[in-house]
Write a structure and sequence with these properties.
722 residues, Pdz3 Domain, 2-enoyl-CoA Hydratase, Chain A, domain 1, 3 domains, four-stranded antiparallel sheet, 19 helices, disordered N terminus, Peptidase S41 family protein ustP, ClpP/crotonase-like_dom_sf, S41A_metabolite_peptidase, Tail-specific_protease
Length: 722
């Protein structure tokens, strides 16, 4: 037997080793960066980044993501156009995605999070809200907030400056009541505890540079919209009519979908102060309510980073229930609309979730909404007794039939109350159902050659070999008897608006073209796909409003189906387009991204699986992460040049209404503000009330040209819309 002292020494050594092991285990748990933020509502952005950055790149996952994106892009109509977009978008869109994918495949990354940022920003450089890569493992797990949303305001002398919005403290104290003390305490010196005094302050410097340096830097990475002015406007706060109420959009400065910034250094001049203040405010990260709870790295990845229902497509023959695509949570559209068959969608994706922050009561309309109001659409009568308003936050609703009947009922109610003029406010409208856009155009304008049989635009789809096989499988094997698939011939009509039969492969023969030196192929020209089947309510036999008495208002962030509606109303009917706010030396466009019909990897994967083509070498594999890849599935042809896509044609606002402190984020004040007659330069023998009379979908129409005009502040108080 060993001596006692040897036993005690051995025991002590074992105890020390055990204690060290236990301490090491505890320390391992303590240094788990995801455990530090698990279960918490508010954390520091640096702590979120530490969690995100703690995972190395898995080569198999990286390869899978790149293969899914690459093969899904075969269905994206704009991929070759976007290598060098036509003017006026050439300087903003010039991205060769396949070269990018090759570069990314060969690049080394410090973490999976770094890989995500590169991949996400690469797709965002397309400035196309339909074609984006979103990894829900990171976006938006936490949202980064500041309590001081900004606005670009115009002074009485016409100069422009960036301001903290007057309602900043009211918004922040209502939405971030449990975090206000952190920001109050972050202020130093005489400003400590005086966060409210920052409201309305002029911003002189952001991180030591003029404010528009930050605005333009954000415009390079925010994506979503082709026009520079629209991406600049994304930096600032705004409002939107939500499905239940009026929502407040904080803007890209005060809300980030990733933990990119820890703090901001500002030099400001507060209201009624003559000397500037220097301050630093921290960003704070708040967990997204849709994030699945976690308490450490393992549960974070297991609960939020693996595929979920809708990430991948499904064989519709294997289940009678079709789950919503995972893309729905990033689209400005209801999940029921997205899941419904025969509901053709054109909707942009956004890494920032729909806002549940409320527009302050003092900025909301106080007049009661009229009968016909539905979800994202509200009707109001102005005090002048002659102007009606439709505030429309989306072209999608939980029930498209209710939306159709509500639109008609609301407009008829406005007419009955004496309205002869109509304002349609589509601020921050991200699109929705294509046929709802057609319906609204049709009932406002009445039956004429621009609304019957098509109240929209002709279009074309990408015509790749796998797409052709999908259509042929549907035809040969009758694999879509319930008409659930996008590629079913029965959904579409030819250029003469004659519906295809069940045996027509509408992708044959392909139309072969060269775009930016690359061979490409598209379908034949497609005509109407909404009337009469989708119109479940009988449209009126006459116009409800004269097009010369209709105005469409937005902040330029009108996308997808909203763009299609606005374009046809403007270019075919002569409706005036007003963009509120924006830099006065940058052209403001009334739509941000156009497209024709949007789709995503999951929906395309369903087409592939249901037509028994998943084993094709052209088919993308199942995605191994909780991700979404969007595409623009169809491109609409233009009005001015009907041989080319409308997406690459110009859409200048007729009027740019400057924002002032009394107008900012105040829809009622904006609706009642002045306007001017747009400058007209008529060509030919003159013009009627419409800008273009469409005699044929295949000939270029003559039209009156309209040019962007800006109201001067001197005129602002005395002008009327009409």
């Amino acid at each position: 037997m060993a001596p006692l002292h040897q036993f005690l020494a051995l025991f002590s050594a074992f105890a020390v080793i055990s204690i060290h092991a236990a301490v090491s285990d505890v320390q391992t748990e303590k240094v788990d960066p995801c455990a530090a933020i698990g279960g918490k509502k508010w954390v520091a952005p640096a702590d979120v980044r530490a969690c995100f950055s703690s995972f190395k790149v898995d080569p198999a996952i990286k390869s899978n993501i790149l293969e899914v994106i690459s093969k899904t892009l075969a269905f994206h109509t704009s991929v070759n156009y976007q290598i060098k977009a036509p003017e006026p978008f050439t300087q903003y869109v010039h991205e060769d995605l396949f070269k990018d994918i090759e570069r990314i495949s060969k690049s080394e990354y410090a973490s999976d999070y770094t890989l995500h940022i590169d991949l996400s920003r690469t797709l965002k450089r397309l400035n196309d809200g339909h074609c984006m890569w979103i990894n829900a493992c990171y976006v938006p797990l936490f949202l980064n907030f500041l309590p001081i949303p900004l606005a670009l305001l115009t002074e009485k002398d016409g100069s422009q400056n960036v301001y903290i919005v007057p309602e900043a403290f009211q918004v922040a104290s209502a939405e971030f009541a449990d975090q206000i003390s952190v920001w109050q305490d972050a202020l130093s010196g005489s400003l400590k505890g005086k966060l409210e005094s920052l409201s309305g302050a002029k911003v002189l410097l952001i991180n030591g540079k003029p404010p528009f340096d930050a605005v333009d830097a954000n415009a390079l990475i925010t994506g979503g919209h082709e026009p520079l002015g629209t991406r600049q406007n994304s930096f600032f706060s705004s409002y939107v009519r939500s499905t239940t109420d009026w929502a407040y959009n904080m803007g890209d400065f005060a809300q980030q979908s990733l933990p990119l910034s820890d703090s901001v250094d500002l030099v400001i001049q507060r209201v009624n102060q003559t000397t500037p203040d220097v301050l630093t405010l921290p960003y704070r990260s708040r967990i997204n309510p849709e994030t699945v709870p976690f308490n450490n790295s393992a549960t974070y990845r297991a609960n939020n980073c693996v595929p979920v229902d809708g990430t991948n497509g499904m064989d519709l023959h294997a289940s009678s229930v079709r789950p919503s695509s995972a893309a729905t949570k990033f689209q400005k559209v209801s999940s029921s609309s997205a899941a419904s068959k025969n509901h053709l969608l054109n909707v942009m994706m956004d890494t920032t979730p729909s806002s549940d922050i409320l527009l302050p009561p003092g900025l909301q309309p106080t007049a009661p909404t009229l009968n016909g109001t539905f979800g994202g659409g509200a009707f109001y009568m102005q005090k002048d007794g002659k102007t009606g308003v439709l505030a429309l936050g989306s072209f999608s609703d939980d029930d498209s039939d209710v939306m159709q009947s509500g639109m008609l009922e609301g407009l008829l109610n406005l007419k009955a109350l004496g309205a002869t003029q109509l304002i349609i406010d589509v601020t921050n409208n991200g699109g929705g159902l294509i046929c709802i856009a057609h319906w609204l155009h049709r009932i406002i304008i009445g039956p004429k050659n621009t609304t019957v049989p098509l109240a929209g635009l002709d279009s074309k789809a990408r015509d790749g070999p796998l797409a052709r096989q999908i259509v042929q499988q549907i035809i040969d094997k009758n694999l879509d008897p319930n008409q659930d698939l996008m590629y079913n011939p029965l959904h579409y009509s030819d250029a003469n608006n004659v519906q295809f039969s069940a045996t027509d492969n509408w992708l044959l023969p392909p139309v072969n073209v060269q775009i930016n030196g690359h061979a490409d192929a598209f379908s034949q020209r497609l005509g109407q796909d909404c009337q009469p089947e989708f119109f479940t309510t009988t449209p009126p036999d006459v116009a409800l409003f004269n097009s010369s008495k209709v105005i469409i208002i937005s902040n330029g962030r009108c996308a997808s189906s909203c763009s299609l509606f606005s374009i046809t109303m403007a270019k075919e009917e002569g409706v005036k387009m007003v963009v509120v706010g924006g830099k006065n030396d940058v052209q403001q466009e009334y739509c941000g991204t156009v497209g024709g019909q949007s789709a995503d990897f999951s929906s395309i994967d369903t087409e592939i699986k249901t037509t028994q083509l998943k084993d094709s070498s052209l088919a993308p594999p199942d995605l191994l992460v909780n991700g979404v890849q969007g595409v623009n599935w169809r491109l609409s042809f233009g009005v001015d040049d009907p041989t080319q896509p409308e997406a690459w044609q110009n859409h200048p606002a007729d009027l740019n209404l400057p924002l002032t402190p009394d107008l900012v984020n105040n829809p009622v004040a904006i609706w009642g503000s002045g306007g001017v007659e747009t400058i007209r330069l008529a060509r030919g023998s003159g013009s009627d009330s419409s800008r273009a009379t469409r005699n044929s979908k295949h000939s270029k129409p003559s039209r009156t040209k309209y040019y962007n005009s800006t109201i001067t502040m001197r005129d602002h108080h005395r002008l009327e819309w009409w």
